[in-house]
């Protein structure tokens, strides 16, 4: 199966996002599912318009395009960026919670109570 038989892009379908041929399912969705640890069978259950042949052909094509060491490098970088984003979101959430919470109001009222030397 060649790329044109497997993937199509059409400005009228999902604004031209690459989709599995004959469907409205973005190719990216398969990779998102796999990255989240969802097996191919579950992906196929979630998107019945995509055939097993299409999914496996896409994965085969992707494996041929990226040598194993490069794919691992990309995966590691993606994991790193994802974790940094999650840490940043968590930090912002904690800061917002602390700013909005009355539990920490005494710290603002009693600035002299705590000093750097304590």
Give structural notes.
With 118 residues, the chain is mainly alpha-helical. The protein has 2 domains: 1-65, Orthogonal Bundle (Arc Repressor Mutant, subunit A), CATH 1.10.10.10; 67-118. Helices cover 61% and strands 3% of the residues. It has helices at 3-6, 27-35, 40-46, 52-65, 68-100, 105-109; strands spanning 7-8, 19-20. A two-stranded antiparallel sheet has the order 1-2. The chain is elongated and about 70 Å long. The termini are far apart. The mean pLDDT is 81.
The CATH class of the largest domain turns out to be Mainly Alpha
- Overall pLDDT level: 81
CATH architecture title of the largest domain: Orthogonal Bundle
| Proportion of residues in helical segments | 55-70%
The fraction of residues assigned to DSSP E strands is under 5%
Question: Can you tell me the CATH superfamily of the largest domain?
Answer: Winged helix-like DNA-binding domain superfamily/Winged helix DNA-binding domain
Strand line-up across the major sheet: 1-2
What is the terminal-to-terminal distance?
70 Å
Count of domains? 2
Given as residue ranges, the uncertain stretches (5+ residues, pLDDT < 50) are: none
The CATH topology of the largest domain is what? Arc Repressor Mutant, subunit A
Count of DSSP strands: 2
Largest sheet: 2 strands, antiparallel
Please give the radius of gyration in angstroms: 23 Å
Helix- and strand-based class?
mainly alpha
The helix-strand sequence is HEEHHHHH
Net shape: elongated
Q: What's the helix count?
A: 6
